[in-house]
């Protein structure tokens, strides 16, 4: 069963349910991951306790420690699931057969749409990672760098200013998105598509001109 921090969770009833031990364990882990994401989004990571997660997931403390060593370990699983989903949205859109800059605009727009559609995922990724400590900030930086690299490779950027320009573009999008999520303005995330388009098209013109100098 795929872990989903914002997905539907279903508690297994006791007794015979026709599932293998591995399927039961996967279901328990997925429920714990989803519960951690939900409770962290509601209370803030620092205020979350293991007991909060157990109550939301409907599992025992013993079950929790069969899957995770502590609260941070469980949060890490939720964070990895969220980042994997977002990365798939961005890179999947980049593979679509459109013009290269149009594809980048669509990919970043899809990122905003995904955040708006999944408030729990958005808050986990953009806000609570800061509260979870330096390790998660480093992971955020690494992920953002991989997105920048994927976009630069997709665009075939070779100029000296190209990679830093892509980094600035992605950083601006993430910063603006974070501001909206902190304010619980999820409609505002979708509204960022228009200024994002201006940003992408302006960068396209600048880098295309640089290539021909």
Describe what this molecule looks like in 3D:
The protein has 213 residues and is an all-alpha fold. The chain has a domain at 73-211. The protein is 76% helix and 0% strand. The chain contains 10 helices and no strands. It has helices at 21-43, 50-57, 61-67, 71-94, 100-117, 119-131, 134-155, 162-182, 186-191, 193-211. Helix 1 packs across helix 2 (50-57), helix 4 runs antiparallel to helix 5 (100-117) and helix 7 crosses helix 8 (162-182). It is elongated and about 60 Å long. 32% of the residues are buried.
Topology, pairings included?
Elements: H1 21-43, H2 50-57, H3 61-67, H4 71-94, H5 100-117, H6 119-131, H7 134-155, H8 162-182, H9 186-191, H10 193-211
Helix pairs in contact: 1-2, 1-4, 1-6, 4-5, 4-6, 4-7, 5-10, 6-8, 7-8, 8-10
What string gives the helices and strands in order? HHHHHHHHHH
Which ranges are low-confidence, i.e. pLDDT below 50, for 5 or more consecutive residues?
12-16
**Treating each run of at least 4 consecutive H or I residues as one helix, how many helices?**
10
Q: How much helicity do the residues have? A: over 70%
The major sheet is characterized as:
none
Please identify the oligomeric state: single chain
Gyration radius from CA atoms, angstroms? 20 Å
Mean pLDDT across the residues is: 87
- The percentage of residues in β strands lies in under 5%
Shape: elongated
């Amino acid at each position: 069963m795929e872990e989903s921090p914002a997905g539907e969770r279903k508690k297994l009833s006791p007794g015979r349910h026709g599932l293998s031990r591995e399927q039961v364990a996967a279901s328990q882990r997925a429920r714990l991951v989803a519960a951690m994401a939900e409770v962290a989004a509601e209370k803030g990571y620092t205020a979350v306790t293991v007991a909060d997660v157990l109550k939301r997931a409907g599992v025992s403390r013993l079950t929790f420690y069969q899957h995770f060593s502590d609260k941070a370990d469980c949060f890490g699983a939720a964070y990895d699931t969220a980042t994997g989903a977002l990365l798939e949205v961005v890179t999947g859109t980049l593979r679509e057969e459109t013009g290269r800059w149009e594809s980048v605009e669509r990919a970043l727009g899809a990122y905003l749409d995904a955040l708006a559609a999944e408030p729990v995922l958005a808050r986990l990724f953009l806000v609570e990672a800061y509260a979870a400590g330096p390790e998660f900030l480093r992971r955020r930086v690494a992920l953002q760098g991989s997105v920048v690299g994927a976009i630069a490779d997709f665009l075939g950027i070779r100029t000296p200013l190209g990679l830093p320009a892509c980094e600035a573009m992605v950083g601006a999008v993430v910063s603006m998105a974070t501001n909206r999520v902190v304010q619980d303005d999820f409609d505002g995330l979708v509204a960022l598509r228009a200024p994002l388009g201006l940003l992408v098209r302006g960068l396209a013109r600048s880098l295309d001109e640089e290539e021909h100098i």
